[in-house]
Design a protein that fits this description.
single chain; about 140 residues; Beta Polymerase, domain 2; six-stranded mixed β-sheet
Length: about 140
């Protein structure tokens, strides 16, 4: 577990190195949000939730979308498909992408939305939903 913690703290630290967008704030009805969510669900992502972080001043993004994969192959498949569909439907590439090597947690940063694709063990360990408990949470299964 300690190894997983050290490997994946970099994912959280990445978020601190960039600024939140000053553009119009996104909603769950935005094209980007819907495209990400649909891509995750098409690839059978599990326990999918979104956290609306807009009312939290120290939040680095408007939304987290968190989902779970059952194995490393599905983890990479979900992340790759999210990027493919966002590029196709929204014309956007991620600001950053991290986590391919560890294959426990992949983070895709679209500035206003940060996608976390995680295996069960790191998801239980990091408890992002609890860490951001002030956020409005919505399930998408």
């Amino acid at each position: 577990m300690r190894k997983i913690k050290n490997e994946h703290l970099n994912n959280l630290n990445l978020l601190e190195t960039r600024q939140k967008s000053t553009q119009k704030r996104l909603t769950r009805n935005s094209r980007l949000f819907k495209t990400i969510l649909n891509a995750i669900l098409e690839k059978k992502g599990e326990n999918v939730v979104s956290l609306d972080l807009k009312k939290i001043p120290e939040a680095v993004t408007d939304f987290f979308i968190i989902c779970q994969a059952t194995n490393p192959i599905q983890l990479k498949t979900i992340a790759d498909y999210v990027e493919e569909m966002v590029k196709k439907n929204c014309g956007e590439r991620p600001y950053s992408h991290s986590g391919n090597k560890g294959e426990h947690w992949i983070l895709i940063d679209y500035i206003d939305i940060v996608v976390h694709v995680m295996l069960p063990e790191p998801r239980k360990f990091y408890k992002l939903e609890e860490m951001w408990s002030d956020a409005e949470i919505k399930e998408h299964n």
